[in-house]
Specification:
The complex is a heterodimer. By secondary structure, chain A is an all-beta fold. Chain A is 0% helix and 50% strand. By secondary structure, chain B is an all-beta fold. In chain B, the strands form two sheets. In chain B, strands 2, 4, 5, 9, 10 and 11 form a six-stranded mixed β-sheet that branches. Classes of the chains: A mainly beta, B mainly beta. Chains A and B meet through strand 5, strand 9 and strand 10 of A and strand 5, strand 9 and strand 10 of B.
């Protein structure tokens, strides 16, 4: 089954404790992206990757890191989480180019930082 | 600065009637406009698209209209069904990129 998986689905952590949210897709997509969803703000892009070893900042990259060592994986790293990073996070992937507007989303990771 | 805006946070429609969801944008550098649908505890799923050179695209019960002069698009769902109850996000793709910019979402409730 074609899908985007994220782990964990739920995470409660404390300020400053490094964490990683994993994202994996099995559709051989070139393009992968991370979004956060906050009330009244919709989905905002954090980082994206056009292909292996190619990453770039989205609209709200502060406090986050990513890597793309393999085509299928695109982990999101919070080196020192803070309470303002409490949010619902989505990973997405698509083929690049003309049909890139059809993005496939993972089920989401709800992160709480206390 | 919100480039894609959905001014109605919620909409309630009776089953069988038409649902109309609206979206406005402020940037002309978009080549595609999209609608995504999101159920609770799931990720958004792609619903329908329209190219910036078109003014209408239809897929079954779903039709998207684009008014470029007004920088406005709308999604019509006819007839509405209870299973359509979800949050709908309008989005736009930035020209010559793979980047999508999303609106804030409209929660649609279809009641019997």
């Amino acid at each position: 089954e074609a899908q985007v998986t994220q782990n964990p689905r739920y995470l409660i952590t404390v300020t400053g404790k490094k964490l990683t949210v994993t994202c994996s897709q099995n559709m051989n997509h070139e393009y992968m992206s991370w979004y956060r969803q906050d009330p009244g703000l919709g989905l905002r892009q954090i980082y994206y990757s056009m292909n292996v070893e190619v990453t770039d900042k989205g609209d709200v990259p502060e406090g986050y890191k990513v890597s793309r060592k393999e085509k299928r994986n695109f982990p999101l790293i919070l080196e020192s989480p803070s309470p303002n990073q409490t949010s619902l996070y989505f990973c997405a992937s698509s083929f690049g180019g003309e049909s890139s507007y059809e993005q496939y989303f993972g089920p989401g990771t709800r992160l709480t930082v206390t | 600065d919100q480039q894609v805006k959905q001014n109605s946070p919620s909409l309630s429609v009776q089953e069988g009637r038409i649902s109309i969801l609206n979206c406005d944008y402020t940037n002309s550098m978009f080549d595609y406009f999209l609608w995504y649908k999101k159920y609770p505890a799931e990720g958004p799923t792609f619903l329908i698209s329209i190219s910036s050179i078109k003014d209408k695209n239809e897929d079954g019960r779903f039709t998207v209209f684009l008014n470029k002069s007004a920088k406005h698009l709308s999604l019509h769902i006819v007839p509405s069904q209870p299973g359509d109850s979800a949050v709908y996000f309008c989005a736009a793709r930035v020209l010559n990129t793979d980047k999508l910019i999303f609106g804030t979402g409209t929660r649609l409730q279809v009641f019997p």
